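User: Structure please.
Assistant: Input sequence and predicted structure:
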Amino acid sequence: QVQLVESGGGLVQAGGSLRLSCAASGSIFSINTMAWYRQAPGKQRELVAVITRSGNTNSADSVKGRFTISRDNAKNTVYLQMNSLKPEDTAVYYCNAQTMARVTLWGQGTQVTVSS
């Protein structure tokens, strides 16, 4: 099956860093835009950061200056470098990708927990 597989989540203390990875496994199509979303308990899923195939990026105000999204097109992989983590960053982080045919894909999610 074509799927997105996240990795890199875990437990970290406030002020620490984590790097999330998301790889398109078994892809039979070209990936266009890729993004990271997150969902905390009791909250709606929100966009964290997005990156186009050409490398243009945008991110939520809450993570600007702390999170950086990047990608390796040859590997169909997107990364999220998270620095200066805060307890409010605790959530399940989901990888998202849009193909050239505008089909949207979602990963299973990876848990990020930031302790105070």
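The longest strand covers residues 31-39.
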